[in-house]
Amino acid sequence: MDLKQKIRVIPDYPREGISYKDITPLLRDGRAFRYAVQSLAAECKNKGAELVVCPKARGLMIGAPLAYILGIGLVVLRKPGQLPGEVFTWHYDLEFGGDALEVHRDAIRPGQKVLVADELLATGGTAYNAIRLVEELGAEVVGAVFLIELTGLGGRVKLRNYDTISLVQYNY
Ligand SMILES: O=P(O)(O)OC[C@H]1O[C@H](OP(=O)(O)OP(=O)(O)O)[C@H](O)[C@@H]1O
Ligand SMILES: Nc1ncnc2[nH]cnc12
């Protein structure tokens, strides 16, 4: 199945120069959605992962069904202030200002094998910091998995120490 046909490219959104990859048409096509997640699951089923960890909103749309198919747990990294229990906060710098990801302190255990999953890899800043957070808690990242990769933006180089998988590629 050609998944690119199910991804809508919107020029100059959310601002001029950005070529936005909109996955909502793929998500609402049941066959395409299932094919995409099953394909990702097939790529990472032999990694021995015990947990899928995904950053925030859109990562969850891929991370949750991936964890379900693999039969392993799911942990979501949230923006600060959105989790009710005791949290671990990972602060990081982005090109334009700072950001942070938060996780329940007891959600990721030392030594656990983790797949980091997101819907899109661009500069790799988000995935890299998700990985750093996971490692800070003593777990091991066995792969980074994405529905879409923007190959010209350097994400794969930033994640060069990790096995990086993507299903659909665009230059930017
Ligand atoms: O590789 P990067 O340059 O870090 O870009 C990729 C990230 O950008 C988007 O998230 P966004 O920050 O828009 O937040 P969202 O989770 O609310 O979708 C996307 O879901 C990735 O997480
Ligand atoms: N071009 C893009 N389209 C959709 N989401 C993104 N996140 C970062 N870059 C993106």
TrEMBL record:
Primary residence: cytoplasm
Cell compartment(s), UniProt: Cytoplasm
Q: What EC number(s) does the entry state?
A: 2.4.2.7
> Phosphoribosyltransferase domain: which residues?
29-162
The biological pathway it contributes to is: Purine metabolism; AMP biosynthesis via salvage pathway; AMP from adenine: step 1/1
* Cellular component aspect of the GO annotation: cytoplasm
Keyword Metal-binding applies: no
Gene3D superfamilies linked: 3.40.50.2020
The lineage's top-level taxon is: Bacteria
Oligomeric state and interaction partners are given as: Homodimer.
Q: Which HAMAP family match?
A: Aden_phosphoribosyltr (MF_00004)
Q: What does this protein do?
A: Catalyzes a salvage reaction resulting in the formation of AMP, that is energically less costly than de novo synthesis.
The name of this protein is Adenine phosphoribosyltransferase
This protein's species is Desulfofundulus kuznetsovii (strain DSM 6115 / VKM B-1805 / 17)
What would be the name of the gene that encodes this protein? apt
